[in-house]
């Protein structure tokens, strides 16, 4: 069975701080896909990144970076120099290619 | 390009009334389609998914049903709404889950 755990329910930081959102997953598949989504107050889910199980390269996109480690089944997300606009709920998700399972989400609040 | 449309954006319905939420996708064929529900302050719960016309898989037995009358149309229904049906409903489509999901803008349902 697939499972995604986001142990951090809520995180609050002050603007310009770095923050890491944790994601741990469980799967028996050898091929799988990991995702991060952002849900701003408007409610719509915004795709941030996709990683397949064969690509453990870490990725950086502006202030966002992702650390994928198969050895610990983790796919953590770091925001550098956080901004108020980063305030949102962030979901980690796991797909076997057919359906996707989401973590419970982490609510990030960035205070000015 | 592919787009997904979901309506209405908000809905207030009395207990016991019927429900019909519609979702359509444009610019792709034979997509996987999904209905998720997000209760207030909670994560995403997969309700139904469909891999083809007339093919519906239910994840959680409940007061809701789904139908896929056309390739790019996915409908969420209820004959009699309960208070517990209140929540934020999201429709999504994917190309077999490999590239992640694209979500609609959501419907905020309040059952009173």
Major sheet of chain A: 6 strands, mixed
Q: What is the gyration radius of chain B calculated from CA atoms?
A: 13 Å
Report helical residue fraction of chain B.
under 10%
SSE-based structural type of chain B: mainly beta
- Secondary structure: helix percent of chain A: under 10%
Order of helices and strands of chain A: EEEEEEEEEEEE
SS strand fraction of chain A:
over 45%
H-E order of chain B: EEEEEEEEEEE
What's the N-to-C terminus distance of chain B?
A: 38 Å
Can you give the mean pLDDT of chain B? 91
Specify the overall morphology of chain A.
globular
First and last CA, distance of chain A: 41 Å
Provide structural commentary:
The complex is a heterodimer of chains A (112) and B (112). Chain A has 112 residues and is mainly β. Helices cover 0% and strands 54% of the residues of chain A. In chain A, strands 2, 5, 6, 10, 11 and 12 form a 6-stranded mixed sheet that branches. Chain A has a 4-stranded antiparallel sheet with strand order 3-9-8-7, with no helix packed on it. In chain A, strands 1-4 form a two-stranded antiparallel sheet. In chain A, a hairpin with a 4-residue loop joins strand 10 and strand 11. In chain B, 0% of the residues lie in helices and 58% in strands. Chain B has strands spanning 3-7, 10-13, 19-26, 32-38, 44-52, 55-58, 65-70, 73-78, 87-94, 101-103, 107-111. In chain B, strands 2, 4, 5, 6, 9, 10 and 11 form a 7-stranded mixed sheet that branches. In chain B, strands 1-3-8-7 form a 4-stranded antiparallel sheet, with no helix packed on it. Classes of the chains: A mainly beta (112), B mainly beta (112). The interface between A and B is medium-sized, with 22 and 25 residues.
């Amino acid at each position: 069975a697939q499972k995604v755990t986001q142990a951090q329910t809520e995180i609050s930081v002050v603007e310009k701080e770095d923050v890491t959102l944790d994601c741990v997953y469980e799967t028996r598949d050898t091929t799988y896909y990991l995702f991060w989504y952002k849900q701003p107050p408007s409610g719509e889910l915004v795709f941030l990144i996709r990683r397949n199980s064969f690509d453990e390269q870490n990725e950086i996109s502006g202030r966002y970076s992702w650390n994928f480690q198969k050895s610990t089944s983790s796919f953590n997300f770091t925001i550098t120099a956080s901004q108020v606009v980063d305030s949102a709920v962030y979901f980690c998700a796991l797909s076997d290619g057919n359906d996707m399972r989401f973590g419970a989400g982490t609510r990030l609040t960035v205070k000015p | 390009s592919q787009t997904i449309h979901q309506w209405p954006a908000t809905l207030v319905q009395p207990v016991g009334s019927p429900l019909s939420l519609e979702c359509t996708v444009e610019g792709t064929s034979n997509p996987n389609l999904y209905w998720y529900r997000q209760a207030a302050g909670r994560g995403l719960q997969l309700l139904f998914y469909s891999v083809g016309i007339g093919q519906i898989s239910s994840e959680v037995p409940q007061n809701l049903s789904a139908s896929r009358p056309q390739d790019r149309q996915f409908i969420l229904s209820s004959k009699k709404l309960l208070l517990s049906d209140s929540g934020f409903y999201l429709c999504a489509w994917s190309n077999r889950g490999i590239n992640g999901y694209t979500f609609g803008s959501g419907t905020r349902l309040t059952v009173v």
